[in-house]
From TrEMBL:
Entry protein name: Isocitrate dehydrogenase kinase/phosphatase
Keywords linked to the UniProt accession: ATP-binding, Cytoplasm, Glyoxylate bypass, Hydrolase, Kinase, Nucleotide-binding, Protein phosphatase, Serine/threonine-protein kinase, Transferase, Tricarboxylic acid cycle
Gene (name only): aceK
Domain Isocitrate dehydrogenase kinase/phosphatase (AceK) kinase: 319-583
Record domain Isocitrate dehydrogenase kinase/phosphatase (AceK) regulatory: where: 15-317
Lineage: superkingdom: Bacteria
Role according to the record: Bifunctional enzyme which can phosphorylate or dephosphorylate isocitrate dehydrogenase (IDH) on a specific serine residue. This is a regulatory mechanism which enables bacteria to bypass the Krebs cycle via the glyoxylate shunt in response to the source of carbon. When bacteria are grown on glucose, IDH is fully active and unphosphorylated, but when grown on acetate or ethanol, the activity of IDH declines drastically concomitant with its phosphorylation.
EC number of this enzyme: 2.7.11.5, 3.1.3.-
Organism field: Simplicispira metamorpha
Pfam families: AceK_kinase, AceK_regulatory
Biological process annotations from GO: glucose metabolic process; glyoxylate cycle; tricarboxylic acid cycle
Amino acid sequence: MFPQRLDSPHAYAIAKAMMDGFNRHYRLFRAESARAKHRFETADWHGQQRAQRERIEFYDLRVKECTMRLEKEFQAGAQPMDVWHQIKLHYIGLLVNHHQPELAETFFNSVTTKILHRTHFHNDFIFVRPAVSTEYIENEETARPTYWAYYPSRETLRETLTQLIHNFRLQREFADLPGDVAQVLAALQERLQQAQLRANFQIQVLSGLFFRNKGAYVVGKVINGFTELPFALPILHDEAGRLTIDAALFGEDDLQMLFAFARASFMVDMEIPSAYVQFLRSLMPRKPRAELYNALGLAKQGKTLFYRDFLYHLRHSTDQLRIAPGIKGMVMLVFDLPSFPYVFKLIKDYYPPPKETTREQVKGKYLLVKQHDRVGRMADTLEYSLVAFPRQRFSDELIAEIQKFAPSQIEISDRDGDGQQEVIIQHLYIERRLIPLNMHLQEALEAGARQQIEHSVIEYGNAIKDLVAANIFPGDMLWKNFGVTRDGKVVFYDYDEIEYLTDCHFRRVPQPRTEEEEMSGEIWYTVRPHDVFPETFAPFLLGNDAVREVFMQHHADLLGVEFWQSHKERILAGHVYDVFPYDTRRRFTHAAGA
């Protein structure tokens, strides 16, 4: 019932305490993001990685703090439901003129569901839909608007590009900024060619630099008449420790690769995140807003938007959830909705030999991936608890599969008392749907598509090498544990055996000492935990001659101990590898060398 009067003496105070909790969260989140600039300037790469991990935990810590305060000061959980209606209305009032209203709504949801112990989203006490618009929110920081606009002519383009870089006030010397700007200008003029510059010719650039791994990225667009050209300029440190613009990335595809779902989030100082998302969507209109919030480090908002999108899709579709195509996993049970581009994964209750793991260990592996730099090679996952689906959207075969392998994870009931049966999944991971690499390769082999085979095998090896550079050993390297994105990139998505590279022991298979050992069909030598024998990979991966030929030509080093051990030693010595979120052939240094 909608309250007729706001007459509770506690409702406003509780709403204000919740808003204070959110404001503290975003203040700390923004301060940590802003410090990324100093870490970049001082080449504090380990500090950048540490901050990336720690920032992920900020949200849950602030929700816990706020929940404890509300219980201690107001006994919030004991307040009657009509008071909670009033709390929500007061909170909406506090959102007026707020700069992050959508994030504050999500924070309210998180705290409220902790206190009221609600099992899923469908109730009147949270923001199932946004209550406050995020359009046209103005930034009060006059020195730092959401974006800067420049209006150059052809004659002043060089000067404008130089000023654009200077405006970020990086406290480190460029090796050759005029030379870098000349290369950016040449790349831009190649795009513009002889096009006439219209009256509205301008360059718009987001005022916050985007920091990730060892790079800083200028992100913006060139507008000319009815044409808009997205661009990004990666700024790196050269071997002498001076700054250099490494490449000029243009167009939606380049930006999609930079903001790919398989990459870690950026650190960027934003007063109005919704304005950043709106600007980025003008560069990448095909990218869901949920993924853009994730890319900006606002994963809880990404989860909120994803869930809203999913509920909307359910209302406008009729197909059934089914067991996902492909080889079934031993640890994860995977299902999908054919009309929806994601898969749903839940951990089974038991695993056949030789798998030796537990539910908590598997969850720990997924958390490791969440906190790590995914270098474009590990799919991001959204984690949910107590997710309710309409029963009629499940195939009977899928229900039977879950009840057989994960009975503790499913409940079928009418919790809302509305006469509609729901399937409630206790714990769930959701990932973008990819084409399993083994299926992709098999199709190519059957069709005799030599170019597709070569591309897939090369990409597979490159994916493993990128993971190694990020201190990740994938564990189970079978083709079925990798997927292919729509642009042909190979991504790893099976995390239950993942390990830090530096925790692994890379060994050669010992020489047999006797004829019995040599002829034995069983492993006769001692294998300790975390032992890895790279030369044993080949029989499992290279059974096809066409695949073997390409693999040995490009990635034979993966079958030797030396490759793995040398990378492990360098990482232990403190080295942080460069992993480029763009084609390295686009690098200016590469072009100069060529």
